Structure formats: structure tokens, C-alpha cells
TrEMBL record, chain A:
Keywords: Amino-acid transport, Cell membrane, Membrane, Transmembrane, Transmembrane helix, Transport. It is a multi-pass membrane protein. NCBIfam families: ectoine_ehuC, HEQRo_perm_3TM. Residues 14-199 form the ABC transmembrane type-1 domain. This is Amino acid ABC transporter membrane protein 1 (PAAT family). Its main location: membrane.
UniProtKB/TrEMBL annotation, chain B:
One of its GO terms (molecular function) is ATP binding. GO terms for cellular component: plasma membrane. NCBIfam families: ectoine_ehuA. InterPro entries: AAA+_ATPase, ABC_ATPase_HisP-typ, ABC_transporter-like_ATP-bd, ABC_transporter-like_CS, Ectoine_EhuA, MetN_ABC_transporter-like, P-loop_NTPase. The keyword Membrane applies. Belongs to the ABC transporter superfamily. This is Polar amino acid transport system ATP-binding protein. Residues 6-251 form the ABC transporter domain. The lineage of its organism: Bacteria, Pseudomonadati, Pseudomonadota, Gammaproteobacteria, Oceanospirillales. It comes from the Bacteria.
TrEMBL record, chain C:
This is Amino acid ABC transporter membrane protein 2 (PAAT family). It comes from Marinomonas communis. Signal peptide: none annotated. The keyword Transport applies. Residues 22-210 form the ABC transmembrane type-1 domain.
Length: 220, 257, 225
């Protein structure tokens, strides 16, 4: 097969991978914030629910979760297409790790900030949203960046439930052609570039926001 | 005799098994400036933090402006205070912290206007008018748009004072507000307090290690040791003729530093 | 809705097969961990090399391995090694991939562990005229060991949880076996749930084990033979 054709097939797969990341990342963020805050501030029974979600998704691997959602849930009457199953599984999985990021970042805001907020008589909601959260957000950026890269890597698992992403196409091409070394080299480099772009993006974001912590930005 | 503005009656305070205060009694009159001195760990900060509602109490009653701070009066006597009650009581109090605790994500001006706007419901214009006046008072008018990270320690603390004053408390709590500062910056902060003491009729409760300052500014000085007031009186008397041996020892140790 | 209720009889029927496969999973983890530690330590030491080129090449290798998917690395080894005349069983291929992937992660743990040893220890070793090898072996590593235990343990647990990816190259580990059972019986609920629970259980036990090792590990470090 001409190399150009291989490349164009792979690039199409890369677009599928990008699409999954673009869908799963917001889901993960929502789960991370939602359950992270429940874990920190919700009353007991709800807090335990959050802990169960977090521990379950962190205690088993993304692939098992993916299979469970894709193969088992249909028996309960919830049928997903492969794409939805992939996005949901990865979003929930990375989101569970994200809750710990949210928790750690909230805990890293100095206690004095909370005390000053009490002394100025802010309500508990104001304390959270106006004082603690804006400061915690800055601390969340680097670990969220790492999680985003983990998400990109984890998208390769959806190839195992027949989604034609980058990994799926690489394997299919490798089975069909003899250019296995070139194919996998290209695929690895594509994933690597994707991760590097994300890493740089998050670093820029962090710079921007933490400068905001000194000058403008978040408080306004 | 009028009722004291602050009154501790038989207060007990514990951290786990460590007893800080036991049957502790203490009062401050309206408009009085009281300095608290004493060795480390004697409970000075804890006293202020109980008043600022940052620490609860295990027994007794604290009255502020004739109302129990940590309790609510009901038909069946006193019950522990709820958030609403604490929120209402905090209107009387303001605190300046040793480590400033300015909000790093807000400009100097925003640090001062945020609470008047969000808590007291003032308009932006009203809050900014107050902030401008206070910044003038603490000599920080030209730094209004800067951020805390860009200020020196002395400047930060002057903003901290302005921020507390913006809520117009009747009682100002000052916990070692100069001890995190470089020596050459101490006076610019103390000058602000000196001016305040002259101009306004605040009730001030200050914990300090600056003995000359306590002597100069206070109506009364209390020497604390192990959660109890060992000796109290006019500053001249405490600093020149302390009666208790523990006070003498403490002041001697301080002088010989 | 035949899949809705949990079928205990079916569960007990498939349990032995899945537990049998657990041996493969554990073996892969064990071998993978050993390899990862060797790889991690080598990378960590190379990152401290005196040659700039060696340091930066190692940095980019580690960065590359860490930011590309394990699954693709598994496929890469599985498809590409035979091209170069190396043929390995799926188990060994998997172990190699796990060892390399997690070795890259561990190298960062080891590096910061070694960096954490006081500078004075190096100076004292130099003063005693110890060779670089002896300094690492007798002075630095024994002290660096304890602080590295928790992070190393966590990565080994992470590796254990990722072993299901080896099913992609036909290794008959737990998940693959469960999938086969599921497709033969048209019942996925019990086998997949069982595998999930087993992973959860093993992870918890391992986490507790690491905690114990860390607690019982002498604070002064140990003397390596
Ligand atoms: N959150 C806490 N938990 C447990 N013990 C505490 C806590 N806060 C204070 N203490 C203890 O209470 C005692 C009194 O503390 P406090 O901070 O009031 O002392 P202080 O007089 O302000 O001392 P310093 O001059 O060092 O500020 C100390 O022994 C301290 O260790
Ligand atoms: Mg104190």
C-alpha cells in the first residue's frame, strides 16, 4: 500500500481519537468537579455515594469499565453505541481521578484564606466560590494537564470495542500490509505530538492563570 | 455601671485533651484599648479566635454587646448558636491577622470592597468610596490597583487593616500584626494603629510582642500565662512595677533580648 | 431480561476458570514489576549522567514512553519485533511492554528519591574515596529506598490494573477469559463483574501490603548486599 494512503487512513483515525477526547474531557471535568465537591462538602450519605463512585472507578481499570458498559449494561436495557460507551467510560474513569485533583487543590489553599473569609463575614457559599475556588483552580491546572494526557492515551482502548480510532486503524493496517514498523512509528509519534500539544497548552494556561493570581484575571 | 462590650464568663476551651482555658473570666469596656502580652502558647491567639468565631468553646458564655456570641437565647435558656446567629454577631467584629491573609486573586481595592459589597449589600460606588477613604487613612492610595503579591509586608498589613475596617466593626482584633514583618517595616503599621486609636473610638483587643507599643497605646495591659490572666492594670504599672513574679520574669526576659 | 438477575450458579461455574487466569495476570504483573524496576533505575541513573547528550536523550525517551498509549506500545512490540527476527510469546511481549511503560514512570520516582538524599552524603562518600558504584550501592540507594516505596507501590498497582490490555495480543488473562466465557454463554454480567471485583480486591490488598512494607521499613534505610 502506498505510504501516502496509509498516512491518510491514520490521520482519519486521529480525528476519531480527537473527537473522543473532545467529548470525554468535558464529561471528566464535570464529574471531577461535581463529585470532588460532593466528596468534600456533601452531607454523609451523599458523600459516601461519591466515595463509592471514586473508589470503584479508580480501583478497576478503564478497559474493564469500558467492557462493562459496552457488554453488560445492554442486558439491563441500556444499550449504547460503541462511541457513547467509549466516551462515557473514559469520562467517568478520568473524572474519578480528577476528583482527587479537585480535593487536593481545595486543601492546598492556605487555612488563613478561609479564616479571613469568616472574619469578613462571607457566607459559606461565598467563601467557597469567591475566595477558595478561584485560588484552587490555579493549582488544579498542572494535574489536570496530566490527566488530559492520560485520557488521550486511554482513548486507544476504544479500539477494542471496534471504534476505528488511530489505534484500531494501525492494527488493521498492520494486519493487512507489511509496513508494520512504519505504521506504528507514525502512530506513536502522532500520540506523542498530541500529548505534547496538550502539555504545552496546559502550561500556557497555568502561566496565564497564576499571573492572574498576582495581577488581574480570576478575581474580576 | 454599664455593661462591658466583651465579657467572658467561666469559659472553658479545650483542644482534645489539652485544656487552654478553664473557668476563664475577662471583660473589655466599650472604647477600651486592651493589650494582651504573655509567653508563647499561653492562649492569647485562642482568645481572639474565639471572639472572631474561628474557635468554638466547650463551656461558659461569651457575651458581645450584651448578647451571647456562641449561644442563642431561647425560651428554654441558651442553646448553641447556629450559622445565622454567628453571621449576625460577626458584624460587631473585625480581625487583622499576623500573616495578613489578603486574597491573592484580588486587587488591593477589591480586597477591601468585596465584603462590604457581598456581605453588607453596598453598591460598588459606596464600597469604593469607603475603600478610598480607608486607603488614604493607611497611606496606600497609590497602591489601590496593585495585587497583594506586589506589596511589601508592611504594605500588605496596612491593606489588611483597611480591609477589616471597611466592615465598620465596633471591635477590632489584632493578633501580632507586626511579628511577620521585617523590623524596619514595623513602625509604618504601628503608626496606622496609633492614628486609629487617636481618631476613632474603637474597642481594640491586641496581642503584641512590641512592649513599648503596648505601653504607649493601651488603656489596660493583661499579662497572660497558661490560659489565665496573671496580672492586669494600667500600662505604666505593669511595665514599671509589676506585682507578680511571673510578670517580672517575663518582662525581664523580654528586656534582656 | 434474562441478564437482569445475578445468576449465582453461573458465577460459581465460571469462577475457577477466571481464577486460573488470575495466575497469568499475577505472573505478568510480577515479571513486569521486576523489569520496570530495572528499567526505571537504569533510566534514573542515565538521567544523572555527566553527558548532556545522554541526559537529554534519556529524558525524551522517558517522555515519549510516558505520553504514548500502553496499548499501542503492546501492539508495536507484538508486530514489530518479529520484523527484526525476534519472536516472543504474548506473555513475554506483554511483560516487556509493561516493564518499559511503567519503567518510564518509575524512573521519575527513583530520580526524585535519589535527588532527595542529602548532598552531604555524596561529599562524605567522595571524602572516603568510594567509587561512584559503591556510593550508589552502599550509601545513596539504601537511604533513597524508603521514600520511594509508596509511589513505586502505586505504579505497580496501576500496572496490575492495566494487565487486561494484554488481552489485545491474545494473552489469556482474566478479562480475556471472561470475555470468551461471556460470548460463549451470551452472559457478560457475571464474568465481567467478577473480574472487576477481583481487580478491586487485589488492588486493595496490594495497597494495604505496600502500606505495611512502608511502615515496617527501617527509617535509616537498609544495607544492600
Ligand atoms: N488547632 C489547635 N489544635 C490543637 N492545639 C492548639 C490549636 N491551636 C492552638 N493550640 C494550642 O493551644 C495553646 C494556645 O495557643 P495560642 O495560639 O492561643 O497561643 P499564643 O498565646 O497565641 O502563642 P503565640 O505567642 O505563640 O502565638 C498552645 O499550646 C497551642 O499549641
Ligand atoms: Mg498567637
Amino acid at each position: 500500500m502506498p505510504f501516502g494512503e496509509i498516512i491518510s487512513i491514520l490521520l482519519e483515525g486521529a480525528l476519531v481519537t480527537l473527537k473522543i477526547v473532545a467529548l470525554a474531557l468535558p464529561l471528566a471535568a464535570v464529574m471531577a468537579f461535581g463529585f470532588g465537591m460532593l466528596r468534600l462538602y456533601a452531607p454523609k450519605p451523599i458523600k459516601y455515594l461519591a466515595i463509592i463512585y471514586i473508589e470503584f472507578f479508580r480501583g478497576t481499570s478503564a478497559l474493564i469499565q469500558l467492557y462493562w458498559i459496552y457488554f453488560v449494561l445492554p442486558f439491563f436495557g441500556f444499550s449504547f453505541d460503541a462511541m457513547t460507551a467509549g466516551v462515557v467510560a473514559l469520562g467517568l474513569n478520568i473524572g474519578a481521578y480528577g476528583t482527587e485533583v479537585v480535593r487536593g487543590a481545595m486543601a492546598s489553599v492556605p487555612k488563613g484564606q478561609y479564616e479571613a473569609a469568616v472574619a469578613l463575614n462571607f457566607s459559606s457559599t461565598q467563601r467557597l466560590w469567591r475566595i477558595l475556588m478561584p485560588q484552587a483552580l490555579v493549582n488544579m491546572i498542572p494535574p489536570f494537564g496530566n490527566l488530559a494526557i492520560e485520557l488521550v492515551k486511554a482513548t486507544s482502548l476504544v479500539s477494542l470495542i471496534t471504534i476505528a480510532d488511530l489505534t484500531y486503524r494501525a492494527k488493521a493496517l498492520a494486519d493487512m500490509t507489511l509496513q508494520v514498523t512504519e505504521i506504528f512509528a507514525v502512530v506513536l509519534v502522532l500520540y506523542f505530538l498530541f500529548a505534547q500539544v496538550l502539555a504545552i497548552g496546559f502550561r500556557v494556561l497555568e502561566k496565564k492563570l497564576s499571573r492572574g493570581l498576582g495581577r488581574g484575571g480570576l478575581g474580576q | 455601671m454599664s455593661q462591658p462590650l466583651i465579657e467572658f464568663q467561666g469559659v472553658e476551651k479545650r483542644f482534645g485533651d489539652t485544656v487552654i482555658f478553664k473557668d476563664f473570666n475577662f471583660s473589655v469596656e466599650d472604647g477600651e484599648i486592651v493589650s494582651i502580652i504573655g509567653p508563647s502558647g499561653s492562649g492569647k491567639s485562642t482568645l481572639l479566635r474565639i471572639l472572631m468565631t474561628l474557635e468554638g468553646i466547650e463551656g461558659g458564655v461569651v457575651n458581645v454587646a450584651g448578647e451571647p456570641l456562641w449561644h442563642k437565647r431561647t425560651a428554654n435558656g441558651l442553646v448553641p448558636a447556629d450559622n445565622k446567629h454567628l453571621h449576625r454577631m460577626r458584624h460587631h467584629l473585625g480581625m487583622v491577622f499576623q500573616h495578613f491573609n489578603l486574597f491573592p486573586h484580588m486587587s488591593v481595592k477589591r480586597n477591601i470592597t468585596e465584603a462590604p459589597m457581598r456581605v453588607q449589600g453596598k453598591t460598588k460606588a459606596e464600597a469604593e468610596a469607603i475603600a478610598d477613604e480607608l486607603l488614604e487613612l493607611v497611606g496606600m492610595s497609590d497602591k489601590a490597583d496593585m495585587y497583594p503579591n506586589e506589596l511589601s509586608g508592611g504594605q500588605k498589613q496596612r491593606v489588611g487593616i483597611a480591609r477589616a475596617l471597611a466592615m465598620q466593626p465596633s471591635i477590632l482584633l489584632l493578633d501580632e500584626i507586626t511579628s511577620a514583618l521585617d523590623p524596619e517595616l514595623v513602625d509604618e503599621v504601628l503608626d496606622v494603629i496609633r492614628n486609629l486609636a487617636k481618631k476613632h473610638s474603637f474597642t481594640m483587643l491586641l496581642v503584641t510582642h512590641e512592649m513599648y507599643f503596648a505601653r504607649e497605646i493601651s488603656d489596660r495591659v493583661c499579662f497572660f500565662d497558661q490560659g489565665a490572666i496573671v496580672e492586669e492594670g494600667e500600662p505604666e504599672q505593669i511595665f514599671t512595677a509589676p506585682k507578680e513574679t511571673r510578670t517580672q520574669a517575663f518582662l525581664n526576659a523580654y528586656m534582656s533580648q | 431480561m434474562n441478564g437482569f438477575d445475578w445468576d449465582w450458579q453461573f458465577t460459581f461455574e465460571v469462577m475457577p476458570t477466571i481464577l486460573e487466569a488470575a495466575k497469568v495476570t499475577l505472573l505478568a504483573t510480577l515479571l513486569g514489576s521486576c523489569l520496570a524496576i530495572v528499567v526505571g533505575l537504569s533510566f534514573a541513573l542515565l538521567r544523572r549522567s555527566g553527558f548532556f547528550l545522554v541526559r537529554s536523550i534519556t529524558y525524551w525517551i522517558v517522555e515519549f514512553v510516558r505520553s504514548t498509549p500502553l496499548l499501542v506500545q503492546i501492539f508495536f512490540l507484538y508486530y514489530v519485533m518479529p520484523e527484526f527476527g525476534i519472536s516472543m510469546s504474548p506473555l513475554l511481549t506483554g511483560v516487556l511492554a509493561l516493564g518499559l511503560h511503567y519503567g518510564a514512570y518509575l524512573s521519575e520516582v527513583f530520580r526524585s528519591g535519589i535527588d532527595g538524599v542529602e548532598k552531604g552524603q555524596w561529599e562524605a562518600s567522595r571524602a572516603l574515596n568510594l567509587s561512584v558504584f559503591d556510593t550508589y550501592k552502599d550509601i545513596v540507594l539504601p537511604q533513597a529506598l524508603r521514600p520511594m516505596i509508596p509511589a513505586t507501590g502505586n505504579y505497580i498497582i496501576a500496572m496490575f490494573k492495566e494487565t487486561p490490555q494484554l488481552s489485545a495480543i491474545t494473552l489469556l488473562e482474566m478479562l480475556q477469559v471472561a470475555k470468551i466465557i461471556g460470548s460463549e454463554n451470551f452472559r457478560y454480567l457475571e464474568p465481567f463483574t467478577l473480574v472487576g471485583v477481583l481487580y478491586l480486591l487485589f488492588s486493595l490488598i496490594a495497597a494495604y501490603g505496600i502500606h505495611c512494607v512502608e511502615r515496617r521499613f527501617p527509617k535509616e534505610g537498609i544495607t544492600l548486599k
